[in-house]
Amino acid sequence: MNLDVWLIFQDDQLVVLKEEESQLPGSSAILHLKAEFARQHFIGQFNQLNVYCAELLDTTVLTDEMTTLPLRKAMDLLEPDWYDMLVRAYAILNWDKNHHYCGRCGHPTNLPSSIAFERTCPQCGLAFYPRISPSIIVLIYKDDQILMARSPHFPRGAYGLIAGFIEAGENIEQAVHREVKEEVNIEIKNLQYIGSQPWPFPDSLMIGFIAEYAAGEITINPSELEDADWYHYDHLPGRPSSRVSIANKIIDYFIDQKRKGYAYGSL
After folding, report:
1. Chain segment 5-27, per-residue pLDDT in tens
2. Chosen CATH of 133-260 out of 3.40.50.300, 3.90.79.10, 3.30.40.10, 3.40.640.10
3. Which residues contact residue 244 at a Cβ distance below 8 angstroms, ignoring those fewer than 6 apart?
4. Do 4-98 and 133-260 come out as alike in CATH topology?
5. For the chain, how many helices (H) and strands (E)?
6. If pLDDT is split at 50, 70 and 90, which confidence band does 227 have?
7. Domain boundaries, given as residue ranges, for the chain
8. Which pLDDT belongs to residue 80?
9. Model-level pTM greater than 0.90?
10. Which of 3, 68, 153, 247 could be bridged to 13 by S-S, CB 3.0 to 4.6 A?
11. What is the C-alpha to C-alpha distance for residues 75 and 59, in angstroms, rounded to an integer?
């Protein structure tokens, strides 16, 4: 068994072994690729394995034994326990790639010789860390119905929940109420926290809620959505495209609780 595992990205796609798409390469399989790494980092230990991440140059030609997967597909194919490491690797590589120059003075940054993921500017002292963008996502229910919405950029047939980024100066609860009002023009009540999930599109931390409908008629914001309506939880028009997303977990949780007749708790 390999003692090392590599999460290698090329053009935002994950490199896997072609024979089994859910298999990640070990050190022996990628020796010939190391000279083509644009950046690499040790990101921790998992299941008694040393886990590394790296980004390949776009011009690198993979061997016949390897192929690449879009990140969303990779998240669905890999063992669920690998999800956090996959998102961590993607975030760290993007942080390293996007902060080679200081955003304040333009000077090249340094990568200190420490275990912390930090780039610093030797000119003005500004530090740069992997970016995390807090976002909310909320399942809104009315009796046995769920508000399901579809964005124009969703894959065909996919529907999801109301979601959006938290803006400067807002607390989390204010962001939930604002996003709901902006996207579907209704009021909600009884907001309940359910769980959270890092989401690498591009660098979100999704903070999940369930809320009860309070008032108003659905009026969609066409700049955000192309469809939204109430659907019985047993007859949804579609589901979020990624099975590992917190949106799917919240929907599954809500349906399970409804069928059991239980009150809501946390995931």
Report:
1. 999 999 999 999 988 767 899 99
2. 3.90.79.10
3. 75, 76, 80, 83
4. yes
5. 4, 13
6. very high
7. 4-98, 101-130, 133-260
8. 85
9. yes
10. 68
11. 24
Q: Tell me: pLDDT of 267 over 70.
A: no
Q: Record the tokens describing residue 120, joined without a space.
A: 């610093």
For 205, phi then psi, to 5°, come to -115, 105
Angle at the Cα of 207 (from 203 to 212), degrees rounded to 5?
Answer: 145
Residues comprising the chain, all counted: 267
pLDDT recorded at residue 84: 94
Beta bridge partners of 101: 108
Task: Sort 188 into a burial class: Cβ within 10 Å, 0-12 / 13-18 / 19+.
Answer: buried
**34 residue type, one letter:** K
The verdict on domain 4-98 having CATH code 3.90.79.20 is yes
Among 3, 10, 38, 8, residue whose Cα is nearest residue 24: 8
Query: How much is the mean pLDDT over the chain?
Result: 93
> In sequence order, what are the residues at sequence separation of 6 or more whose Cβ sits closer than 8 angstroms to the Cβ of residue 151?
160, 224, 225, 226
Cα 233 from Cα 145, distance rounded (Å)? 6
